[in-house]
């Protein structure tokens, strides 16, 4: 955390409220998921505006609004749309990534349950802008209630003439298919998702070609996250200046921050991008039972851990990156002092081991061995050398894996060791066998004592 | 040059021992066709078809894979490769209910590991094992699940993919005991509880009334049908609405939208 960051901090120059409900605004309305509620609350008004415009104007609008992808990577959505060919020689596809599975992330599921029509209206506008006549919503299979609500909403939209042939008399045709996945984290990776949608094992593809050239069925395809597309109707209605009145210069707009873990009031908080954890914690009633914060993730388990030193990092794409992590999906998992870092890191690593798709060796083998080493350490059978082994294996995964899953897998480990090395060392001190043979470790055990925060006994409490 | 091998498969060229797929009756075959018709290319139907297979048999069987292969003119090897990749396709017969406990880090730290351990001891089974006779009333398959995207409501578990939020070891055990007695306690979020096979039918994309109920018109909006109840099952926990409610109470809103926001001009053609 640098002072420069703190000064740029929250968008103090812009006079926005601490919370800016846009995507979450309808959630309090009765039966917010129905077409009638949606239409009463300006639903499908943006679509009428959009259908009167030239598709390229809509691409320009999303570009000038500066909307960045809400699925984790933060790529400018308008730029992505602009990669699609202008003259369709093959069918174009819009695919919605609704395979929410990044540990800690829980924003798209409530959005699809509460306000599925906002996603559908966004899909229609985006499809029109990209000259796509087919849109697929790939929903995580475990999110059955979302699948159900989306099916219902799509049917309502067809009946009302928002979908099908000649949408609202515009001459534009669009079909939407709601497609349930089958339980594979890797399918959140856009090219793996496309393979899965083609009825194959969900394994990532080599890029290039990027999906805009050869995506679904080798046709031009754009894959966008739920929250990204659900933002589009508001941008059409409000304009880019309105959107940019929230958030920061390079990361404009509102964002759903999902706060979970050891806080008094966990939940979904929609605030301007650039809001800090200190501000969000205040909104969430502070740490649960007043037990101090130990570590947290800014955007899911694939984003390097932060500590209590990072409370004032502006949580936008630049701020999180400058502070050594990533914004990811703004999934803020908050852990207090009772939780052992090596234990948490081990649990996450077991997750990546389970979800590694097996396509590339660094990730498949690396995650397996990382989990083995961490399990041994948490079990009190580790040695100091294991820490070096972990970092060495991480070094062989990061940037050498086929897709970003491997990069994500090493994030908790390298950041955990960076900020909490003494906890990993304390685990080694517990290793009686190793201590018996190494005098110096004996000394270290004495130095570390037995009651510090990293004591594995505390891990037991959390397990 | 050596000869080029032709790896493409058609239903004629595939040679494999005949597996009897008669368990999939005409209704199921009609459903399969409806699934295939949804997609521009037929193979995209494979994931929902495998869900359909599970809705009939409670897991993916050899007959189920053969059935999918027949529908899509794939080899059974191609189907098997897919069926074995995804966690939700069960290789062994599943119980009437599938209980999935999140044991990813956050839920685990809040008690998810203890919940899983408690249920495992109570049921006397481990991961992906079934207490009771699979398919019979009160039989339960237990599994530990990865992050279920309900972290603000942790620790969570799902029964047949419906959410039971903010569980404790005790509430989870009471829930499972009720399931074993043949009861169907309502989920925190989701539709009234049915069973694993019915959930799989929905994942295949069918939200009509279950066969035999007499209301199979597939219109969830009509009357007080089960399908309507399912769609309108609860979805918003207090946590879900925490931020929206706080903003409402404090009068916090996003900046007002202009009355007539203008679209940018068309970019000049290069």
UniProtKB/TrEMBL annotation, chain A:
Residues 342-387 form the NADH-ubiquinone oxidoreductase 51kDa subunit iron-sulphur binding domain. Belongs to the complex I 51 kDa subunit family. Keywords: 4Fe-4S, Flavoprotein, FMN, Iron, Iron-sulfur, Metal-binding, NAD, Quinone, Translocase. One of its GO terms (biological process) is cellular respiration. NDH-1 shuttles electrons from NADH, via FMN and iron-sulfur (Fe-S) centers, to quinones in the respiratory chain. Its EC number is 7.1.1.-. SUPFAM superfamilies: Nqo1 FMN-binding domain-like, Nqo1 middle domain-like, Nqo1C-terminal domain-like. SMART domains: NADH_4Fe-4S (SM00928). Coiled coil: none annotated. It comes from Halopolyspora algeriensis. Its cofactor is FMN; [4Fe-4S] cluster. This is NADH-quinone oxidoreductase subunit F.
UniProtKB/TrEMBL annotation, chain B:
Residues 207-270 are annotated as: Disordered. GO terms for molecular function: 2 iron, 2 sulfur cluster binding; metal ion binding; NADH dehydrogenase activity. Its cofactor is [2Fe-2S] cluster. CDD domains: TRX_Fd_NuoE. InterPro entries: NuoE_dom, NuoE_N, Thioredoxin-like_sf. NCBIfam families: PRK07539.1-1 (NF005721). Belongs to the complex I 24 kDa subunit family. This is NADH dehydrogenase subunit E.
């Amino acid at each position: 955390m640098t002072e420069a960051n703190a000064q740029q901090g929250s968008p103090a120059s812009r006079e926005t409220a601490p919370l800016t409900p846009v995507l979450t605004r309808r959630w309090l309305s009765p039966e917010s998921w129905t077409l009638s509620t949606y239409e009463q609350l300006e639903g499908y008004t943006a679509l009428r505006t959009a259908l009167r415009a030239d598709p390229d104007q809509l691409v320009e609008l999303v570009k000038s609004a500066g909307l960045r992808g809400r699925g984790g990577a933060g790529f400018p959505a308008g730029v992505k749309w602009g990669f699609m060919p202008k003259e369709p020689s093959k069918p174009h596809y819009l695919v919605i990534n609704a395979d929410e599975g990044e540990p800690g992330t829980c924003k798209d599921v409530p959005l699809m349950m509460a306000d599925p029509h906002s996603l559908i209206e966004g899909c229609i506008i985006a499809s029109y802008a990209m000259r796509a006549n087919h849109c697929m919503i790939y929903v995580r299979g475990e999110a059955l209630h979302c699948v159900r609500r989306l099916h219902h909403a799509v049917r309502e939209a067809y009946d009302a003439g928002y979908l099908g042939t000649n949408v609202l008399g515009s001459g534009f045709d669009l079909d939407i298919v709601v497609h349930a996945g089958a339980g594979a984290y890797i399918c959140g990776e856009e090219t793996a998702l496309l393979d899965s949608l083609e009825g194959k094992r969900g394994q990532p593809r080599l890029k290039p070609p990027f999906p805009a050239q050869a995506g679904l069925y080798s046709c031009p395809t754009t894959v966008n996250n739920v929250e990204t597309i659900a933002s589009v109707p508001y941008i059409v209605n409000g304009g880019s200046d309105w959107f940019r009145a929230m958030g920061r210069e390079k990361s404009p707009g509102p964002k759903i921050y999902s706060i979970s873990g050891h806080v008094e009031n966990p939940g979904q908080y929609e605030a301007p991008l650039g809001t800090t954890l200190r501000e969000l914690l205040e909104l969430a009633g502070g740490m649960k039972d007043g037990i101090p914060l130990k570590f947290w993730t800014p955007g899911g388990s694939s984003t390097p851990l932060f500590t209590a030193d990072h409370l004032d990092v502006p949580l936008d794409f630049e701020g999180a990156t400058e502070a050594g992590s990533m914004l990811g999906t703004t999934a803020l998992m908050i852990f207090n002092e009772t939780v052992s870092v090596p234990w948490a890191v081990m649990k996450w690593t077991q997750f990546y081991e389970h979800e590694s798709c097996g396509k590339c060796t660094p990730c498949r083998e690396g995650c397996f061995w990382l989990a083995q080493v961490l399990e041994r350490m948490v079990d009190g059978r580790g040695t100091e050398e294991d820490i070096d082994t972990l970092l060495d294996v991480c070094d062989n995964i990061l940037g050498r894996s086929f897709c970003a899953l491997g990069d994500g897998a090493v994030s908790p480990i390298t950041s955990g060791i960076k900020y909490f090395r003494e906890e990993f060392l304390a685990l080694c001190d517990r290793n009686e066998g190793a201590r018996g043979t190494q005098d110096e470790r004996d000394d270290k055990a004495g130095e570390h004592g037995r009651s510090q925060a990293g004591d594995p006994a505390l891990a037991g409490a959390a397990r | 040059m050596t000869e080029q091998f032709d790896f493409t498969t058609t239903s004629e060229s595939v040679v494999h021992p005949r597996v009897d797929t008669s368990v999939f009756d005409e209704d199921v075959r009609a459903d399969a066709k409806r699934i295939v018709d949804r997609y521009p290319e037929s193979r995209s139907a494979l994931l929902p078809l495998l869900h359909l297979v599970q809705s009939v048999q409670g897991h993916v069987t050899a007959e189920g894979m053969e059935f999918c292969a027949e529908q899509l003119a794939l080899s059974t090897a191609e189907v098997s490769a897919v069926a074995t990749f995804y966690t939700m396709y069960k290789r062994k017969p599943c119980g009437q209910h599938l209980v999935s406990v999140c044991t990813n880090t956050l839920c685990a730290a809040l008690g998810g590991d203890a919940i899983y351990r408690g249920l495992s001891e109570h049921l006397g089974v481990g991961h992906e094992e079934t207490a009771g006779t699979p398919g019979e009333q009160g039989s339960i398959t237990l599994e530990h699940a990865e992050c279920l995207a309900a972290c603000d409501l942790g620790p969570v578990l799902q029964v047949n993919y419906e959410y039971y939020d903010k569980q404790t070891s005790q509430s989870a055990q009471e829930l499972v005991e009720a399931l074993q007695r043949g009861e169907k306690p309502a989920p925190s979020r989701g539709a009234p509880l049915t069973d694993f096979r019915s959930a799989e039918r929905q994942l295949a994309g069918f939200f009509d009334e279950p066969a035999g109920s007499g209301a199979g018109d597939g219109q969830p909006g009509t009357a007080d049908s089960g399908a309507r109840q399912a769609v309108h099952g609860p979805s918003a926990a207090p946590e879900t609405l925490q931020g929206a409610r706080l903003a409402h109470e404090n009068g916090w809103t996003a900046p007002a939208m202009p009355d007539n926001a203008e679209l940018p001009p068309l970019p000049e053609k290069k």
